[in-house]
Amino acid sequence: MNTLLLHPDIQEFIIQNTGADLTKLALQKNPFPEVEWKLILNQIEARSKAKEKLPTWFSAPNIIYPSKVSVEQTSSEKTASYKADLISGKTLIDLTGGFGVDDYYFSKKFKSVTHCEINEELSEIVAHNFKQLEIENCSFFPGDSIDLLEKTNQKFDWIYIDPSRRNDAKGKVFMLKDCLPNVPELLDFYFEKADSILIKTAPLLDISAGLSELKNVKNIHIIALENEVKELLFEIHKNYTGEITLKTANILKEKTETFEFVLNEETSIPTYDFPKKNIYEPNAAIMKSGGFDEVSVIFKIDKLHKHSHLYTSESLIDFPGRRFEVQKAIPYHKNEMKTELANKQANITTRNFPETVENIRKKWKIKNGGNLYCFFTTDVKDNKIVLICTKII
User: Fold this and answer.
1) Which residue numbers delimit the PG-1098 ferredoxin-like domain (predicted)?
2) pTM of the full predicted structure?
């Protein structure tokens, strides 16, 4: 860690230029020749990226940032805060600490947190930043977390781990065994050190693939931020063999939409019907969960088709996703399209439909935007239909 970056003049320069055009800035002469220009530019770029994602870090003095990639890959504060509320105990060890955002929030829930990070410079940066953020119950281990676990006699309440994909795994189907550390291989060893483990994975991971590699899974959490899935969490407990609950959360500015169901519950038999007054589109976290039948059963609303994943009801209900009022439902035929939508403006979504949004726009000369929302989909009788709707706020 280059402590010269903490010089008041350099810190002031970084703050003043946050959000500036880096291409132009890079062409300027370095006003601080004692520090490599590239390092200062990196601080400016990383701090700019932290403004929305990491407001606590952004607003604190004398924060040092790692490479912009580390900032891009770290949890946002909103997902980290949500995650910390899921578990509790006295001691937690994070085997892949990174920039420490998750541990900052874990430190508010646990008596002590151990941050392990194989990159020694990054470990030093996080230790420095935590002093600036006045976090005193976190200890730092620079090195391989396996070394620490092998040497310590301490048993932790929780192990937290965010394995990263190995570079040679590119192009392959994403599996946990292709990551570092190899969690499936090390699971028995980890259970010697903690009875409860929380594994964070990228949203790319297929849930059934994760379950095929792990044992003792109790809960799976799918966390989305502003309707974009950010991470999956596998919560596993030593010797647990019961049912698996899938919990989804879509964190929005005003609220968090949650939904949960038991995986492989055989009683989830959905009902089907033609479009009624209201249409519902599940949020991204529910879409990732695959709990499409459960949505129908739990909310007592009808599916339009087995594969359409749109729902309908006569009376409006509170729903974790977008809600629409149907103005018209038309068959997808030339005459109806010409009359109702050709040469007009509308927002288009396809669900279980043979044509792409791009093709539909081109074919019928429909401009993007406006107050109309059109769902091109398939109904319960396998007919191609178009639902012309307005959004319910």
Assistant:
1) 279-320
2) 0.91
